[in-house]
Specification:
The chain contains 3 helices and no strands. The chain is mostly helical. The protein starts with a helix and ends in a 7-residue tail after the last helix.
């Protein structure tokens, strides 16, 4: 998640147009990996949170609103990752269309 924050700041502040698609894809894949780690953490805590040998003070470990918010956060992390990857694909298609349109503007040029 921290890597994604750094990549988003880099995308907003100092990336050239050439690298925008790659950075968006990397942000999407990074968020998918972070969502997978969050899912694993939620499964482990959900399965063993009430156990006596999992954490100290087992009497006070119960699934509460914070567990629910963690679940919602992980689901939104997957949603945002997919949206970043979709946006990268849209930008890539726009670049391809722009390049093909530029090539069609000059039909007399020779292509070797």
């Amino acid at each position: 998640m921290l890597i994604a924050i750094g990549l988003v700041l880099m995308y907003l502040l100092c990336i050239d147009d050439y690298y925008r698609v790659k950075v968006l894809r990397w942000i999407g894949f990074d968020l998918i990996v972070a969502g997978a780690c969050g899912t694993i953490a939620l499964i482990i805590f959900g399965a063993q949170g009430d156990g006596r040998d999992f954490m100290p003070d087992w009497e006070q470990n119960y699934l509460s609103w914070s567990f629910g918010l963690a679940f919602v956060g992980v689901v939104f992390m997957y949603v945002v990752a997919v949206l970043f990857i979709v946006e990268a694909r849209i930008m890539q298609r726009k670049e391809i269309a722009r390049e093909s349109q530029e090539k069609q503007q000059y039909p007399m040029e020779r292509t070797v």
